[in-house]
Each structure stands twice: as C-alpha cells, then as structure tokens.
Amino acid sequence: MIILENAAIATVDAAGTEHASGHVVLDAGRIVAVGPGSAPPQYAAPDATRVDAAGCLVTPGLVNTHHHLYQWLTRGYAPDATLFGWLTELYPVWARLDAERLYDGASGNLAWLALSGCTTSTDHQYVFPTDGGDLLEAEISAATRIGLRFHPCRGSMDLGQSAGGLPPDSVVEDLDTILAATEAAIDRWHDPASDAMVRIAVAPCSPFSVTEQLMRESAALARRRGVRLHTHLAETTDEDDFCRETYGRTPAEYAEDLGWLGPDVWLAHGVHLSPDAVARLATTGTGVAHCPTSNGRLGAGIAPVRRLLDAGAPVGLGVDGSASNESGRMVDELHQSLLVARAAGGPQALTARESLRMATMGGAQCLGRQDEIGSLEPGKLADLAVWRVDGLAGAGIADPVATLVLGAPALDRLYVGGREVVAGGRLCTADPDELAAGVARSAAAMRGER
C-alpha cells in the first residue's frame, strides 16, 4: 500500500473535484481512496509506504493518444518542410528501420514520455521494411522495460508511388500480408483485461498511403476481433486536396463512406474538419487525437478543438512522432493546446482544466479506457503523476493546475499500476545513459553511418 498525503489533487472526475490538501491511497495496482486531508485511519497499515507530497500536485497520469516511436531516431530532419515534403525526405531513412533500432529508439522515447508525466502511450507503427524483423515485439519489449501502459497500433501502407501514393514502394506491404500480420498481432499481444498493459489497435496509415480496400477490410477485421481503429485524417490541406481529387470527397466524408467513424475509432490530427464533419464525429462518438506541437512544427494548422468539445466528441492529446515534435514532452501538449486554441479562438477558447482533461480523461475515452484510467477515483488503475509546484519554477503561483498547464512543472513521481516508474524526478526502470547510448547508435545507423 502507498499513501500520498498533503498534496494538492486534481481528480479530473466528472464533477472536476479538487482538493487543496488531500490524500490518495494505492493498493494492489488500484486507487482505493482519494479525498481531502489525511488518509483515513483504516489505511494506517504498518507496512504502508507513506509519501509526504507537500508542495506537489497529483493528477491522473497523462495519456498520449498518437505517437510514432521509431521517429525518435530521426529527429531534426526537414525542419522547414510541409508534411508531404517532410515525408518524402524521411521515407528513405525510415526504410532502414529494423527491430534492434526500433527497440533502442522506443526505449529512449518511452522513457522521455514517462519523465514528462505519461503513464499510457499509443504508438502508430506503420513502416515495416522488408527483413526488418518483428517491429511490434521490439516496441512492446521497450514498453515493458520502461513500465508504461501501451497501446501499439499495427499500422500499414499498401499504396506506394507506383500506384499513385506518396510512400516509396520499398516501405509498403501487400494487402494479404498486412491483414495476416495484424490478426497475428492481436492473437499474440492484445489483452482485453481491465488492467491490461498492452492492447492492440488496427491502424492503416492515411488516405494517401492506403487503398480503399485495405481501409474497409481493416475496419471489418478490427470489429470482428473487438479492437479499436486508428488512422491519420484531415491533417493538412494537401491531404484534403488529395482526397477531393482522388476520391471526390473530403477526408472525413471518405472515412465515413468506408465505415471509419464510430465509438471504436479515434483519428489523429483532425485539423481540417468542416462544421458538418465535427458534427458527424460527435454524433458517431469518433475520437480525435489533437497534436498541437506537431501541427505547428509542420504548419498544418489548428484543429477545431473548441467546436469538437462543444459538440461532445472525445478529444485527447498526442505528442506525435518526434521527427515532427523534437521536444517529445507529453506535458508540453497541455500548454500548447491551450495556446493554439486561444490564438485561433480568443482568450476564452480553452481553459487550463479543459487542457488537463483532454490529456487524461479525454485520452482515456479515445482509447476506450475511461472506466479504468484518466481520473483519480477509487477502483481505477493506480496510474498517476506527482508534480512539484513549490520549486523555483512554481512557487507562489496561486493555482497549481495553472502551474501545470501554463508554467514549467517538474515531475517528481510517476506510478503505473502502483509501480514507481519515476521517483525524485529520476527514471527508476532503466539507466538513462544506457538509453541515450542506444539511441545515438541506432540514429547513426538510420542515417547510414557505421
């Protein structure tokens, strides 16, 4: 049993309950008590670990709803390009990916996410070079090493340049290979249990790299197996132009025609959504992974988050791949989401607490885990972040949630299923120097260096 006391607490429950000084009790991987003041006497077990969290804010662990872990190895490329130009430069580099390199990159990337408050991360792995080895196994092993809850999405591309798509033929697969590999991943790795550490989603890459047949058959496979669906959609004006010219429809209309809207679907980016598209996503319960930093890095635009939230669509936050978000810090997305919303819609466009909700409960809703993670409530999994708000960066700020979203918070502790992954601001589960050395080695190999 672990008892955190004397902390400010933002539970992110339905009522938005907060405590200026309170307690959280963890036992057997779950939260058993949350409330104001000290923990009740019944939790005064002699073997309990007590943590004095005075000067800290406790929140649910952050949920990263869109990522590409392999891109940790290819940061800094095409810094001034549009999405299509950036992809064109990077696809040949990504063709050098193999399981050993991905393990190094994913280990380093997941560790960095943990150090920025993330307890659950997705990954959209859609590049599968020939003879690259078992890439899903590599990144799942990395997540196990670091200790994060993990939702890898078995991605795919089958529309290469020779067939009118954007990616080179060397990094696409054929339809039968994709479907067989996706089903095998579900068989091997997907865990439907309420405390699952690994769940698989089905994730064709995007309208400009995937055929209509693959989109339809992937949706059918996912629904037959009871897993979720994920893809990029409406990220850029280039994509909008491509879909209108190729399919005669907007990206959202195309997705709906293919059966890709529904409560089991969450879409990455959703930047260029019309009011009608926003309404359709909300009506169907389709989620959106908002990636403000990446969208800004690539100049893709600003997602209509206020309209999505007002319509009732689930909205989470995503770091996205670190080749389009080199900082890679999950907590930064709270700050960025608030800034871009206000830049587009004025000072009332998004509140600090709405940013925190998107990063926690909104992400849990996108992943279908709102009953298990995303808020601090008895019975939920013991995934939580403890932020120092009393140091030089935070001391004197009146509102600790504002400190988290608008300031420069320092992570003190991170628990996943009650296991301490970060303590005293340091990673507990792996040696950061070893992780950095592995990343450097594999990044050099990706550049073609010995």
**Full CATH superfamily name of the largest domain:** Metal-dependent hydrolases
Terminal CA distance: 49 Å
Helix content: 25-40%
For this structure, what is the CATH class of the largest domain? Alpha Beta
Which range does the strand content fall in?
15-25%
Quickly give the structural class.
Answer: alpha/beta
**Could you state the oligomeric state of the chains shown?**
single chain
Strand count, sense and barrel status of the largest sheet are: 9 strands, mixed
Task: Indicate the low-confidence ranges by residue numbers.
Answer: none
Q: Determine the number of helices (DSSP H or I, runs of at least 4 residues).
A: 14
- Rg, nearest Å: 21 Å
| CATH fold field value of the largest domain | TIM Barrel
What is the arithmetic mean of pLDDT?
Answer: 96
Shape: globular
What number of domains?
2
CATH architecture assignment name of the largest domain: Alpha-Beta Barrel
Q: Give the beta-strand count.
A: 17
In short:
With 450 residues, this protein is an alpha/beta fold. It is built from 14 helices and 17 strands. Helix 4 packs parallel to helix 5.
How would you characterize the overall build of this protein?
By secondary structure, the chain is an alpha/beta fold. It has two domains: 110 residues, Urease, subunit C, domain 1; 305 residues, Metal-dependent hydrolases (TIM Barrel). 54% of the residues are buried. The model has no long low-confidence stretch (mean pLDDT 96). Strand 2 and strand 3 form a beta hairpin. The chain starts with a strand and ends with a helix. The strands form two sheets. Strands 1, 2, 3, 4, 5, 14, 15, 16 and 17 form a nine-stranded mixed β-sheet that branches. Strands 6-7-8-9-10-11-12-13 form an eight-stranded parallel β-sheet. 36% of the residues lie in helices and 21% in strands. The longest helix is centred in the first third of the chain and has 16 residues. The chain has 14 helices and 17 strands.
